[in-house]
Amino acid sequence: MKTNLLNKSESLIGKQVRTNTTLGDKFEGVLSSIKAKGNVIYYFLSDLEGKEIGIPDTTIIDIEELH
How many CB atoms are located within 10 Å of the residue 31 CB? Predict the structure, then answer.
């Protein structure tokens, strides 16, 4: 599943997205980058104020583009 998520997400860089996590949280923002740290891939979202949050792939269920 991590590979499918990564493949899908690469085309979403620079676009407005929403993530659903295993903790029930939903994060919205512009997918600014995807970076690996060890065995974990982090998806970085930027909000309107330019603040960035890194979400580990171990908690992401899905990521979708907002229109």
Answer: 21
Please provide the average confidence, as pLDDT, over all residues in the chain: 91
Does pLDDT of 1 surpass 60?
no
Among 40, 39, 35, 34, which residue's Cα sits nearest to residue 14?
A: 34
Beta-strand ranges (E) seen in 1-67 are 16-21, 26-37, 40-46, 52-56, 60-65
Q: What is the pLDDT of residues 37-48, one digit of tens each?
A: 999 999 999 988
State the Cα–Cα distance between residues 3 and 24, nearest whole angstrom: 22
Structure tokens at 19: 């993530």
32 exposure class (CB count in 10 Å sphere: 0-12, 13-18, 19+): middle
Catalogue all structural domains in the chain, each as residue range(s) with its CATH number. Answer: 2-65 (2.30.30.100)
